[in-house]
Structure formats: C-alpha cells, structure tokens
Amino acid sequence: MSILVNRDSKVLIQGITGQHATFHAQEAMKIGTQIVAGVTPGKGGRTHLGLPVFHTVEQAVEATGAEVSGIFVPPAFAADAIMEAIDAGIRVIVVIADGVPVQDMMRVKRYLIGRDSIIIGPNTAGIITPEACKVGIMPAHIYRPGPVGVVSRSGTLNYEAVEQMNALGLGQSTALSIGGDPINGCDFITILKAFEEDPQTEAVLLIGEIGGAQEVEAAAWAKDHLSKPLVAYIAGVSAPPGRRMGHAGAIVSGEADTAKAKMARMQALGAQVVENPAEIGATLRAVLP
Amino acid sequence: MNIHEYQAKALLRQFGVPVPEGRVVHSDAHAAAAAEEIGGDRWVLKAQIHAGGRGKAGGVKVVDSIEQVQIAADELIGTHLVTPQTGPAGRLVQRVLVEQAQNITQEYYLGLVVNRDAQRITLIASSEGGMEIEEVARKTPQKVIRETIDPAVGLLDFQCRKVAARIGCVGKPMNALVRLMKGFYRCFRDKDCLMAEINPLALVNGTELMALDAKMSFDGNALYRHPEIADLRDFEEEDPREVEASGHGLNYIALSGNVGCIVNGAGLAMATMDAITLHGGQPANFLDVGGGASPEKIANAFRIVLEDSQVKAILLNIFAGINRCDWVAEGIVQAIRDQHIQVPVVVRLAGTNVEAGRRILAESGLNYIEAQNLDDGAAKAVQALQGAEA
Q1: Burial B7-42 (b: 16+ CB within 10 A, else e)
Q2: Range of the domain at A40
Q3: Over 80: is that where the pLDDT of A72 sits?
C-alpha cells in the first residue's frame, strides 16, 4: 500500500516535450511508473517517448483515463496548468516549477475550493511510492519500500532522511515533499490524514522548516488523530530572522516562526522531535516496533 | 525585492492614493531648489534608504526655511545612517526626498500583506498610525483591524467601510478612505506585492487623506511580468556578494560564522548549518547551488564563499538528485586548483553518480577531507577549523 500514487496510477505529464520533463518521465518509467500521456498545447497528435501527446488535459484524460499529473511547465505558466488539471478532474497534481508567483497560487487555491484535487508543490521534488510510481525529480534508486511515510518541505532533505533510513534498513511507504513556497498546494495535515489511512505506513516522518504555522498545526492534528508515531525535524535553527533561506517560505517573521519555537510546540503536542538532522534515521528506528 | 519610499509613493499615486508633493534630490543645492519649486513654508527631508527606523535615527528632518533645507540635505546626503535595521555599519544616504510638511490632524496605519496562513491577501488597519504595527499589536491588539480579501472578488466597498468604521475614520473622509484602500489594494494585486505599508496615513487639515510614508516589497518570482518594477531595484541597497551570487544562479546569504557552506537545496543547506552549529561551529553562510550545478557553478560557489575572510574551513554537502556528483567533483577540483584554496575543504557527496564523483576527487591528488555523511561532514569541518586555528 501507499498514499496518493501506486503502480496502478495512470500518470500524464504536462509539458512533456520539454527537456527536463522528457528526462524525468524516462526516469519514472524505469521504476514502473505508468505514464500514459503527455500534454503540450500546440503539439497534440504527436508521439513522444512512445506516448500520445494531447493539446489539452481534457483530451488526455478522455483518451487515457489519466488521474495523476506531473506538471513540468515553467513557473509563469504553472498556475494555468494546475487549474486546467483541476478542471479536468485530475486527482493528484504534482507541480515541479520553482518560482511560481505567490498571488498565482492564491488564485489557484481559491479555484480549488469545492473541488477534490490534491496539489503537491509547487517547488517540490515530487512524490514517490518506491518501486511503483514516481511523479517528480527525486533519485528513485535511493527509495525502498517499507513502513515509513515521509513528508517534507524540502526535496534534498527528503533524500538525506531516506539515506539515513536506508543505512538502517528502513524503507518508505510513500515519500513526498510539499514544497518550499509560502503557499503550498496542500498542507502537512492532508498528507498525515492519508498516511493515517494507509495500513502499510507504521510511522510518519515530517520534515519542516522555519516560517509559517503548518508544522505545528500538523502536530496538533496528529495529537488527536494520528495513531502512528510522528517523528519531526525542523530545519533552520541557525537561520537569522528576517532572511529568506532559499525557499520563498523559509523566513522567520516572528517568534513563532523559529525552528526552536516550532520544535518545542510540536514536542509538547506529542511529536518525537529530532534536534540533530543526522539522527532522523535512528529516531525512526527507535519508534518502530 | 524592496524599493525606496519615493518610488513607492510614485507608484501609489498612479493608483489614486494621494501623496504629498515632493522631489528626490542628490545634492543640497538641488534640495533647496526643490523646496522652492514645491512651495510652502515648512518642509520634510527624508533619507532614502531601504531600512526602516529612519525617523529615530535622525534620517528625517523638518525645517522651515530654504536655508535650513539646504543645511539639512547637506547633513543627510553622504552620511551612513544607522538604524536598528541597518546593522552597525549603516547605509549610505545618496538621495533625499523633499516634501511639503503637512498639517496632521490624525494618523492611521494601513497595510496589505500576503497572509500565508489564510492563503490570501489581508488588509491591516489601525487608528494608531505612525507607530510600528508590531508594537501596536503587542500593546493594544484590539486596535489592529484585519480584513481578509477573497481573490475572486477583490477588496469590496463594504469591507473598506467596515475597516474605516472600526478605526474611527467616519464622516467626510470615509468615502475618500474607501477609494484609497481600493487603489492601494489594486496596486498590491496588479504589481504582485508581498507586503505594503502606508504608515502613517494622515488626515491632513481635518479633511484630506494622504500617504505620508510608504514601504513596498515585491514578489521576485513575478518580476518577469513587471519590468517597470524590476527597474526600480537598487543594487546598492543589497549585499554585493549576494548580488554577485544570484548572477551565477546561486542563492547565498552571508552569516557571521567561520565555516563556509556549499550545499544543494535550501532544506539541506539549512540542515547543514544546523549540524555545524550542533558540533560547536558557526556557519559563515547559507548557500544553495540549486539543481543542475555545473563545474563552473561549483567553482563560483567556492569563490564567493571565500570572499568572506572569516571563512576558515569549507563544508561542501551535495545530495545529488537532478545534480550529478561527477560534475560537482570536477567543480571542486577546478576550484581547489585555480583558486589556491588554503582552508581545509570537507566534501560529502551522495546520490546520482556518487562513485564517479569520488573517483574524480581521489584521482586529482588534491588535498581535501572526505566525509561519509552529514554528521561526519559537520564534525570534520568543525575539527578542521580547530586544526586551522591551532
């Protein structure tokens, strides 16, 4: 089992004819991801990587039954592509673009109200269910099937945690990053709910950052609703206030935004908080049976 | 991206927000001429730097003769103004805004912000203008009025009236305030702002509303659709190393420690800094090389990190996903060879093409310290630092 994507998921790639999209679609297919179509407006009717290309998401969904989309279009076109996917009834939308204007995401989130799609990203490395389905840009070969659900903001910190888990023989049910932007397509709580419902997931690792209230809200939700151990790390203890640490959303704007404050509140809410990023793997090992 | 007060006022004026008549000048002689042109008998001179807290730091002067305008401008231009936001070195004042002084009846606060919790734009207003809004929120939270805006319909008239009534701006000026708020919001939305403040918003001569100070910052990711805003960027207000780094596609932020960091990904970069701190060291910088880092990009990263003379050791931590460890290794070899690097370099490579990367480094015959993982890397960097100091 897994969350959101598995070996039966039919995936389409928006912007498939681009160089990065082509490369990552090929990589994803190597682990068995069922990519069924591509969308590039103006290039419909062609074949790319042996896949049919359509002008619109609607056409692609109609022809192939795709229910997951990986969006590889540039940031300036991302919002429109996301809303096109929502409109076409895509269930899981993964947005790789880094640099989507924040007010664009605001409009996307408004458009999403009353509709059921889950948006992962923007500014995400994507989502992977090991050896089954990958929609994203992470190195698939480091991920192994196993009992830990992994959700992070950052992509590379997700890899780091997974490598530590590998060294201890711990695999992942599904791993994803929700992205480093101030307005994320989906929040940590949405993902925790999915992990709670997944029987394969025995523990959840949440990797957050400075800035915003999401991590603490997730810990508060977990306290009442998550029956599995929650291990958490918050990056940015050494970050100075008022500066954006690479990610647009990683900024300490007030006392509650600091890594220390978040960790203290999450610990108080029952999460197993790791202070040293090098001890994520060992902490997970300890909470699992 | 931040802009100067005079630029923000010019922008707001385009959206129908009244601002005082003013001129930007670069010299005391021009200041006097500007004051005569504007007319009146009392003027305000305001140092134009991006940092806040100018008033208390002596960066704002009110004078009542043309001679005094010239003297005040002379005092301001060319000095390094130190405010709580500039750091001890202060900021060089190169421009002064000369405005007619206003007869203020009442001061309000008006702000717009991208509210990440609501995932919408929120209008913030207060009857306590002229003070920092954070301070008002701390002392009298009931005086901070918030109204969140639905992006589908924008800021509505009734919302503006609600806010006006709650900050006590009723009677004649109320309609003007509604118009002003709507113009302010349109500006914020159309120009992709992240934060904007009019503080104070003044009621002048008991009748007229006017933005006496304005601060705006813009979404760097949206500048591609606002070339006119991108043109307002003042590179002299930014750290020259950060500007140079961004020119090379590197995200660099100077900090105060002595372990230079070169990392891919913002999250891993922060975690690397944290690991160094846990081992008793202090990071000299945040640096994210991003994805698809070429050997040249890595070599540039070394150069920029080493421009900081505080740096006594470097920790390079790359977990390659879309990056390639072999390219990174070539960049390290290039940097160590060409830049005659004297400080110890600790290298942790993982992910895509890691074996090829390690081989390139091993065969280079250069001096570096290999680390097995994040913890090992941070420990060895701090250790190397102690060796370098001994």
Answers
A1: bbbbbbeebebbbbebbbbeebebbbbbbeebeeee
A2: 1-124
A3: yes
Peptide bond into B283 cis (omega under 30): no
Give the C-alpha separation, A232 to A247, whole Å.
Answer: 19
Coil, helix or strand for A1? coil
CA-CA distance, B203 to B340, in Å (whole number)? 63
Report residue A97 as tokens: 């673009």
DSSP for residue B2: B
* DSSP designation for A58: H
Which CATH number covers residue A80?
Answer: 3.40.50.720
Query: What gap in Å lies between CA B248 and CA B250, rounded to an integer?
Result: 5
- Computed over its alpha carbons, how large is the radius of gyration of chain B? 26
- What would the pLDDT profile of A37-64 be if each residue is shown by its tens digit? 999 999 999 999 999 999 999 999 999 9
Phi, psi of B104, deg, nearest 5: -85, 125
Q: Respond yes or no: is residue A225 known to be catalytic.
A: no
Share of chain B above pLDDT 90, in %: 85
Q: Tell me, what CATH number does A253's domain have?
A: 3.40.50.261
Q: How many domains does chain A have?
A: 2
Tokens of A21: 């999209």
Taking CB atoms and an 8 Å limit, are A110 and B273 in contact across chains?
no
- Nearest CB among B253, B267, B375 relative to A156 is that of B267
Indicate yes or no: CB of A259 within 8 angstroms of CB of B274.
yes
